[in-house]
Write a structure and sequence with these properties.
Elements: H1 18-32, H2 37-51, H3 60-69, E1 73-75, E2 82-84, H4 86-101, E3 112-118, E4 122-129, H5 141-152, E5 165-173, E6 176-182, H6 195-212, E7 217-223, E8 227-230, H7 247-259, E9 266-272, E10 278-281, E11 284-287, H8 294-309, E12 314-318, H9 323-336, E13 339-343, E14 351-355, E15 360-364
Parallel strand pairs: 6-7, 6-9, 9-12, 12-13
Antiparallel strand pairs: 1-2, 3-5, 4-5, 7-8, 10-11, 13-14, 14-15
């Protein structure tokens, strides 16, 4: 009887240089250290000591020199401080995109398809007979001449209205997106590091939008006791603060930003552990970290309903598995008629996708 031998899976790294192998680990560590190069290199040295990542031919010093030479890190000669460069910031975002959504090819089209055919941006392979009112530039002359030859012969060539074929083009639409990130203390509470997965999702989404849909607009909002905007380049450096979770402030700022966008297609992505614990009333903060406070959750649900009226769908990425928090996110999502992704910390790439518009449910890997 034939038997099978099972062994531990190891990623195939054939063809990778020693620098490439160390760089992959370095990029991952930077996500955990919030862009702190010194701390990431200390961790890398400790991993090298335990698992012998380097060799006598290529040591950690060689790797650091290559990082500087290839433009991944920059050292201040006066202070000696080492920082990552814009190249590394983008590399971290790309790594997060590959980890979460898989490798996506860059598209030259920076828009989103709609189901409406007509005079648009992208040529469709489908053709149809000419109708009164069609534009001259929509005529497919190759197909039209072919029809004329078939219908009237080659000897006395003539073209009639019935011979004309129209090449459809698809409309494209631009989208304005606000990405909200929870940086409250609960994102690291009870020893669970929720902020690193949150940053990875944020960096993946920002890289996806800026590369695949470059004509879209993307604004990023972080929220703790208050909410404020940050830039894409700031994402690797985000850290949790001694804050409560003022989801209402984040939503209000996101709605205010989208109000100023003339684009009719708008959406909000929110990354959180799902537990709003704070409101700002006047100059004072109303806080309650024990369970879900109805005064706070009611304001959140009211904003979700307002966004629905304004046709602003909210997609929630929830980095927590608490059942009562998931129930609140479900209620919030149903109120907005939006979407929710529930991501476990140990397997960020596996989400339970709930689409309340279509009523479908599937797991993404």
């Amino acid at each position: 009887m034939r038997g099978y031998f099972f062994s531990k899976y190891e990623e195939n790294q054939e063809g990778k240089t020693p620098f490439d192998k160390l760089l992959e680990l370095f990029m991952q560590l930077l996500s955990y250290t919030s862009g702190d190069v010194s701390e990431a290199l200390q961790w890398l040295n400790e991993l090298d000591r335990q698992f012998e990542l380097t060799s006598p031919e290529y040591g950690m010093g060689d790797f650091i020199d290559d990082l500087k030479e290839k433009g991944y890190i920059d050292e201040n000669k006066q202070t000696g401080q080492i920082k990552i460069t814009a190249k590394t910031e983008q590399g971290i975002r790309k790594k997060s995109l590959e980890e979460i959504f898989g490798k996506l090819k860059k598209s030259k089209q920076g828009d989103h398809n709609t189901r409406k055919p007509g005079q648009g941006d992208e040529i469709s392979p489908d053709t149809r007979p000419y109708q009164f009112g069609d534009m001259l530039e929509q005529i497919d002359f190759t197909e039209s001449i072919r029809n004329a030859q078939i219908n009237h012969g080659l000897e006395s060539f003539s073209m009639h209205e019935d011979d004309l074929q129209i090449r459809e083009t698809d409309f494209k639409s631009q989208t304005s997106t606000v990405l909200m990130i929870d940086i409250s203390h609960s994102m690291i509470l009870y020893g669970e590091d929720r902020i690193t997965p949150a940053k990875k999702v944020a960096m993946a989404l920002s890289e996806l939008i800026t590369t695949k849909y470059p004509k879209d607009t993307l604004d990023i909002v972080v929220f703790g006791n208050d909410a404020w905007p940050v830039e894409i380049k700031d994402l690797p450096y985000l850290q949790v603060g001694p804050y409560h979770t003022n989801t209402v402030a984040g939503l209000e700022l996101a709605m205010d930003i989208l109000r100023r966008r003339r684009n009719p297609n708008k959406q909000i992505f929110m990354i959180t552990d799902g537990k709003p614990t704070c409101l700002k009333i006047g100059k004072k903060y109303y806080k309650n970290s024990f369970g879900l406070d109805r005064k706070i959750t009611s304001r959140c649900l009211n904003l979700a309903a307002q966004c629905k009226k304004l046709k602003i769908p909210i997609t929630t990425f929830m980095i927590a598995s608490d059942p009562y928090l998931q129930r609140f996110v479900n209620e919030f999502t149903e109120t907005n008629n939006g979407k929710a992704f529930f991501a476990s910390l140990d397997h960020l790439g596996a989400f339970i996708f709930k689409d309340f518009e279509s009523g479908k449910r599937k797991t993404l890997y």
